[in-house]
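Sharing in case it's useful to others searching the archive later.

Someone asked me privately for the predicted structure of Peptide-methionine (R)-S-oxide reductase, so I'm posting the question and my answer publicly. Question first, with the sequence:
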Amino acid sequence: MLRNIIRSVIHRSNLIASTNNTTNRIKLHVSALRMGDKVDKANLKSRLTPIQYQVTQEKGTERPFTGCYNKTYDPGTYVCIVCEQPLFSSDTKYDSACGWPAFNDVLDAGKVKLSPDTSGVGSNLLLLITQPGRIRTEVTCSQCGAHLGHVFGDGPPPTKKRFCINSASLNFLPKTAED
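And my answer, the predicted structure tokens:
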């Protein structure tokens, strides 16, 4: 009966089940979150490191030059740490010297959501009027809503974009011989 319930949940939620025979526990791993699915914060807190949770769920920022992917240039794909959606290719990664991984493009425009971020000015209308450049553009995963970083208009040609992304919001999948 338990197996039928699990199969039903898996079928309805697009989940993958795996069993650990030594502990006889059933672990459910979200293979892909659809837009609009509620992210289980308790599950994320147990699955992510504190900095990964703070960055992706609380819109935090890791300290510059501390992220594990800042100087990684191996061929491969960068995916969302929360839902594993492919986001960036190593082909578009470059050294911007900003202290965070920088990309000049995303794999597909539909993979990310761009939104105005006024956290740098708060509710100070004078700052909004006199320094409009302080309004940044936040980058989030379009599938699960995880905060990734920000995009700026000072990148290299041809896009002239700099996607400044926290390493804590990414996982790197190296290119394999089959790719």
